[in-house]
Amino acid sequence: MALFSRDVGIDLGTASTVVHVRGRGIVIREPSVVAIDKSNMKVMAVGESAKEMLGRTPGGIVAIRPLKEGVIANYDMTQVMLRYFMQKAGAHSRMFKPRVVICIPSGITEVEKRAVEEATIQAGAREAYLIEESMAAALGAGLPVEDAVGSMIVNIGGGTSEIAVISLSGIVASQSLRIAGDAFDSAIMLYIKRELNLLIGERTAEDIKLTIGAAYRRPGHADENYEIRGRDIIDGLPKNLIITSTEIIEALGDPLGEILEAIRLTLEKTPPELASDIMEGGIVMAGGSSLLYGLSDLISHVTGMPVIIAENPVDCVAMGTGIVLNELDSLRRLLVTSNQKKHQ
Prior knowledge:
Elements: E1 8-12, E2 16-21, E3 25-31, E4 34-37, E5 42-46, H1 48-51, E6 61-64, E7 67-68, E8 71-72, H2 75-88, E9 99-104, H3 110-122, E10 127-132, H4 133-140, E11 151-156, E12 161-167, E13 170-177, H5 181-196, E14 198-199, H6 202-212, E15 225-232, E16 238-244, H7 245-251, H8 253-268, H9 272-281, E17 283-286, H10 295-303, E18 307-309, H11 316-326, H12 339-342
Parallel strand pairs: 1-9, 9-10, 11-17, 17-18
Antiparallel strand pairs: 1-2, 2-3, 4-5, 4-6, 7-8, 11-12, 12-13, 14-15, 15-16
């Protein structure tokens, strides 16, 4: 049956979902958003078209992000979204169902693992295999995860930051934080509200982050400006203001501080021999939020270690699932087995 189905790997992210189809590579990279009509619960749009509706929908239509902080917050909408992406990828038909390798954060509970498995099966998968995001990202970044050498991956996505030291196909030390790109957006919104008395939406905060967002001031780097449009807290009227990249560095101080502390704790728990390997090979960064300007410099400055951004950081996790699909028998030990499967 595998000959007639297109097996898929899915990076099911809080902000976006990336789909890898065996033999074809990355075929979908869309926001993890579903728009529904509240009057009849009919799905109006999924992915990119649904994201366009965020904050702009009339009263009867609501745009939902079914995942929060890396885990399923709305089971039914997650199932709808997965089915949509699998069908769009040409991997799902009534006769032949695909095998699916899907990513999970390392810190999730057994209940949350089962929810991902069951949603994937209900969406049309023949079999669902779970892999931790850190392991998939390391594979996708080309790290030697099966060798007796220490590799460190810092994967910062939309909902979670996954930090892990990997050696001999196993995770030696790790930290999973529910702080990442979404937390950056929230921090920007809060800063602008607190310091400038201006209310802005999630999309505006994300635009600010992508346009002038920064984590660290490189020597000689000129300050950048961004004109914000929002609503004045005091009089409730629309208002335009200018914000600078220096202010964004200040706004992001708390969430970035927690990520840096998690990296420090992971290194603290790493055996000395593996730590020396990391010092030589460097910390590798993946995930869309790893592209925040100056973040790699900040991590290098704090840890004293070289930091390298993966060649294709946004797609690393999905590419890792594709590698597992191609060598499922030999790489099966990298997969996560839930208690549900252990007892079957």
